[in-house]
Design a protein that fits this description.
The protein has 503 residues and is α/β, with parallel strands linked by helices. The protein has four domains: 6-174, Rossmann fold; 180-241, Helicase, Ruva Protein, domain 3 (Orthogonal Bundle), CATH 1.10.8.60; 246-355, Zinc Finger, Delta Prime, domain 3 (Up-down Bundle); 392-494, DnaA, N-terminal domain (GMP Synthetase, Chain A, domain 3, 2-Layer Sandwich), CATH 3.30.300.180. 51% of the residues lie in helices and 10% in strands. The strands form three sheets. Strands 2-3-4-1-5 form a five-stranded parallel beta sheet, covered by helices on one side. Strands 8-9-10 form a three-stranded mixed beta sheet. A two-stranded parallel sheet has the order 6-7. A hairpin with a 4-residue loop joins strand 8 and strand 9. The protein is globular, with a radius of gyration of 29 Å.
């Protein structure tokens, strides 16, 4: 088994090979040339943008037999050992699996010894934000005053989790996502060298799917070659990735623009039958409508799209109003979140898409039924003569309803479980005893039970009190145990409660 994956084979070996991080390479090259090498660096940025690669190149530049030099030879024993991961003086630590205080104490002991083969001992700590608080505290003193021949390079994808006491002792360098054009250009070089034949359209999809990560894009290319061989077509790539292809996305958006529910559901069925997951279709639709939104406001140039694809996006964007695109993105984003928790992810997406169809007819809810749109708070059952403010309780309920989205947002910040349960429920009524009744569909009693947990219940009740001034007690019920009430709900009443979005 001598095969080496493409991302390892094509890993950058000197500063000139780095793609899309010119500001980083210039800073480090100048530091070496001017003799201004810091004792500690903090490399921050998304995955696959070159943090560990640059750390290794920097170690080679410092310990090359011809160095320190901004252009390591790559041929001497030190350079080759660092390249192969065998260098005694270049120590790579994965903080995700070596995150405790014992590992850092061991590091502190070894730091005191002089380099064996090179000029510097270079410690590369990957995903440093994973260290425990105790481990960070143990590292602090060593990081503040390390021996003269020791360089620390801390790499992280989440710099906000690195304590300020650590970050302030490092020279911070922020890595950027790699632009689409640079990713695609590098992929072309790899394909030419490896003798792969890849359709230009397929190469665009691989580059976009990498989302600014060169490593992810190269790994996808490697996977595509394993699937399709040395000749890769766009259709093969769509099957492999399970993503919604260009035609499906434009067709789904077109069905929404034309308010064609039957076509919308049929397109979704066909897409899923062809092997795409409902979650992936939702994600791709969100990206597509984001493109339409940018095109609508005249910011299409900010999108990383080919000229041909951008022209199609701009053409379709004319079919939508700006507020419509905003509402679609909000609804799809909410559906994507719901799909992570709901046992029927496809159903969630289908309902969300149908809810997005423009109003074409009135809605009357029969006696004993509950009008609802998605998981928003439902209007209380009313008789024809009722009005939202007919009773003090109804007036208090109206105040809660008007703040419902704010309540959900605040609950989400403090209790994710409470948020999910509240989000899945229906706001039914506020009775005379001050109990706020939340209804759940049959088969979803676990949401009722989770809502009843003391911690979640207290958090939600307090948030309602803070935002509305109403002190209520939450109580969940499973639909079927809710006593029916007579009357119907008019379209105007439903529109008042649901901001005009009707099914």
């Amino acid at each position: 088994m001598n095969y080496i994956s493409l991302y390892r084979k094509w890993r950058s070996q000197d500063f000139s090979e780095l793609i899309g991080q010119a500001h980083i390479t210039q800073t480090l090259r100048n530091a070496i040339t001017q003799g201004r090498i810091s004792h500690a660096y903090l490399f921050c940025g998304p995955r696959g943008t070159g943090k560990t690669s640059i750390a290794r190149i920097f170690a080679k530049a410092l310990n090359c037999e011809k160095g320190p030099t901004p252009d390591p030879c790559g041929q001497c024993a030190n350079c080759q050992k660092i390249r192969d991961g065998h260098a005694v003086d270049t120590i790579e630590i994965d903080a995700a699996s070596n995150r405790g205080i014992d590992e850092i104490r061991d590091l502190r002991e070894k730091v005191r010894y002089a380099p064996v083969e090179g000029r510097f001992k270079v410690y590369i700590i990957d995903e440093v934000h994973m260290l425990t608080t105790e481990a960070f505290n143990a590292l602090l003193k060593t990081l503040e005053e390390p021996p003269a021949q020791v360089i620390f390079i801390l790499a992280t994808t989440e710099p906000s989790k690195v304590p300020l006491t650590i970050a302030s002792r490092c020279q911070r360098l922020d890595f950027a996502r790699i632009p689409l054009a640079l990713v695609k250009g590098h992929l072309k070089e790899i394909c030419k060298a490896e003798k792969f034949e890849v359709e230009d359209k397929a190469l665009d999809l691989i580059a976009r799917s990498g989302e600014g990560s060169m490593r992810d894009a190269i790994s996808l290319l490697d996977q595509a070659v394993s699937f399709a061989g040395n000749k890769i077509s766009f259709d093969q790539l769509v099957i492999l990735l399970g993503c919604a292809d260009e035609e499906l996305l434009f067709s789904l958006a077109g069905a929404l623009a034309q308010n064609d529910g039957a076509q919308l559901l049929d397109l979704l069925r066909r897409g899923i039958d062809e092997g795409r997951s409902a979650s992936q279709v939702a994600k791709d639709l969100i990206h597509h409508f984001r493109d339409l939104l940018f095109a609508k406001v005249g910011a299409g140039g900010a999108l990383e799209l080919t000229a041909e694809y951008l022209a199609k996006v701009q053409e379709q964007a004319r079919s939508f109003e700006l507020t419509r695109l905003r509402d679609i993105l909000r609804a799809l984003s909410r559906a994507e979140l719901d799909m992570k928790w709901h046992p029927q992810a496809r159903l969630v997406l289908e309902v969300a898409l149908l809810e997005l169809l423009e109003e074409s007819r009135g809605v009357v809810v029969a006696s004993g039924e509950t009008a609802s749109v998605g998981s928003r708070a439902a209007a209380p059952r009313q008789t024809p003569n009722d009005s939202p403010d007919a009773t003090p309780a109804a007036g208090r309920l109206g105040k809660i309803k008007s703040n419902w989205n704010k309540i959900l947002d605040e609950v989400k910040k403090k209790s994710l479980n409470g948020y999910v349960s509240l989000h899945e429920g229906q706001l039914l009524e506020l009775n005379e005893n001050g109990k706020l009744m939340i209804g759940f569909r049959k088969g979803y009693a676990f949401h009722k039970e989770r809502l009843a947990e003391e911690k979640n219940k207290n958090i939600i009740e307090q948030i309602i009190a803070d935002l509305t001034g109403e002190k209520v007690k939450l109580e969940g019920v499973v639909e079927g145990t809710i006593p029916p009430q007579g009357g119907t709900i008019s379209v105007d009443v439903v529109k008042d409660f649901f901001e005009g979005e009707l099914v």
